Amino acid sequence: MSEIQKPVRVRFAPSPTGYLHVGGARTAIYNYFFAKATGGTFYLRIEDTDRKRYNEEALKDLMRDLKWLGLQWDEGPGVEKDCGPYFQSERLDIYHREIKKLLDSGDAYYCFCTEERLNQVRAEQEKSGTSITGYDRHCRNISREEAEARIAAGEKAVIRLKVPEQGITSFDDKIRGHIEYQNELLDDLVLIKRDGFPTYHFASVVDDHLMGTTHVLRGDEWISSTPKHMLLYKAFGWEPPVWCHLPVILAAGGGKLSKRKGAASVGDFRDLGYLPETLVNFLALLGWNPGDDREIMSVQEMIDSFTLERINPKAVAFDEKKLQWMNGQHIHLCDDSFLVQVLKEGLQAKGIDFSASSEERLLEIVKLLKPRTHFLQDLSEMADYFFKEPESFDEKGQRKHWGEGSRKIASAVCDAMRSVENFTTPEIEKAFLDLANTRQCKLGELVGAVRLAVSGVTAGPGLWELFEVVGKETVIQRIEKALPLMQE
Ligand code: GLU
C-alpha cells in the first residue's frame, strides 16, 4: 500500500457508551499529536449508531475529559466544518446513499434470516465442530427484485457484504507490519441493521472515506475489524487509509486494565488529583518514546518528537507508581499562582479559615510544600498547621520524640526562639546551631520534639522555613502548650 502524501487528517471516533478509558485517551493523544506534528487536522467523530448503548451523560463527560486533557479538536461537535455532521446518527441519509452503491454493484445483499435461524445455524456449526463458523450466506442469491418486493410487503431485512469465499485480504499496518486474513474465515458482515442504522464497520469506513481520513490510529482490539474494512474499501473502489494499531495497555499485574483493578478512566485520575499534563505525558509514553530517554515532557515537546515510527507494537503495562512520580514532577513545574489557587480551594473545602493570610504568605506555603506534593490535594492536606493549631499529635512521633529528656530540650529551643529578634530562616537556623553548640549535641536532637509540637506531624518542609512561615508567636505558644505532654 502506498504511503498517503496528502495533508494528514486523523480522527478520534469514540462511541458514547461509557467513561473515557485511559486506552481511549491514549488513542486520542496519539491522533492529536500526529495531527499537530504534521500540520494536519484532528477531528472528533461521535459513533453513536448503537442506540441501545447510547448514553447522553457519557457523551458530555467524553467531551469534557478530552478538553480537560487539552485535546481540542479542529473539527467536530461544536466546531462544524465541511465534513459534518460529526454525529453518525445524523448521517443516516449518507449511509443509505452509499449502501445503494454496493447493492447496485452486487457487493451487498438483503438478508431476511431471523434471529432464531441464525441461532440454529450457530448451534449446528458448534455441534459439527467445523472451523468455518458464522453466517451461512443463506440469502446471498436472493435476487434484488425479489428482495425489494419482500421488503415492500413489510418483511424486515439487514444488508450484508458479499465477502469473497476464497483468497486472502491483507494490509500493511504501520506499527504491526504485514497482516493477512483468509477470506473464508470472514463472515458476510452486516452493514445496515434491521432498524436502518449502519453497523460500526459500515459507518466507520464510509465516514473515514468521506471525511478524508488519511491515517487510522486506533487500539489493537480493532485489528480484526480491519480486513472487513479493507473489503469495504475494495468494494467501493476507495483508497484505504494508513492503518496504525496501537499496542494494548495492560494492568500492572497483567490482564486488561479495568475499573475493578483500580482507576481506569480519565475522570478517575482527575478526581485522584492528577494533572492533565501528567496524564497526557504518561499515556503518551505507554507505547511511544521520543527517541531518547526524556520522560518529563511538555505537550509541545512531545509533539515536536512525535513520529508513528516510534510507536512500539508490544503491549505495555500501566505502572501507577510511575504515574504518581510523574505527577509530582509536573506539579513542581506548575505555576505557583495556580498552586495557590488549588491550595485556597482545598482549604475552603475543608472549612479552614485562611482569611488572615496574605497572598504572599500563601505563596510561601506553596513553595514549602511543593517539593513534597504528589497530588494536588496534598497541598491543602499538608497545610493545616499553617492556619490552625494541631488537633492531635502523631502517635508514633510522640513515642519517638517526646520521651525522657525531651521536655528540657523543647524548652531550651523555645527560649532560643524567644531570643530570635528577626524571625527569619537564617536567624532561626543560627539560633538552632548556637543551641546545639552550647548543649554539645547534634542538631538533629533538637528538632524532632518541636516539629511535632508545632505541626502535629513528624515530616514536612525544612524546620527553619516552616517556623518562619508559622510565625514567632505561634511557634512559641505551640511549644509551650505541648511541653506538659513531653517527658522530663
Ligand atoms: N467507535 C469505535 C470505538 O469506540 C472506534 C473504533 C475505530 O477507531 O475505528 O472505539
Walkthrough of the structure:
The structure is a single chain. Helices cover 46% and strands 9% of the residues. It has 488 residues and is mainly alpha-helical. The mean pLDDT is 95. A 3-stranded antiparallel β-sheet has the order 3-4-7. It is built from 20 helices and 11 strands. The protein has 4 domains: 1-76 and 247-333, Rossmann fold, CATH 3.40.50; 91-246, HUPs (Rossmann fold), CATH 3.40.50; 334-386, Helicase, Ruva Protein, domain 3 (Orthogonal Bundle); 395-485, Arc Repressor Mutant, subunit A (Orthogonal Bundle). Residues 13-15, 47, 204, 218, 222 line the site of glutamic acid.
Which sheet architecture does the biggest sheet show? 3 strands, antiparallel
- Average pLDDT, to the nearest integer? 95
CATH-level-4 superfamily name of the largest domain: HUPs
Determine the strand fraction and express it as a percent band. 5-15%
The CATH architecture of the largest domain can be named as 3-Layer(aba) Sandwich
In the CATH scheme, what's the topology name of the largest domain?
Rossmann fold
* Lateral arrangement of strands in the main beta sheet: 3-4-7
Helix content: 40-55%
Parts with pLDDT < 50 across at least 5 consecutive residues: none
- Rg to the nearest angstrom? 32 Å
What is the number of independent domains? 4
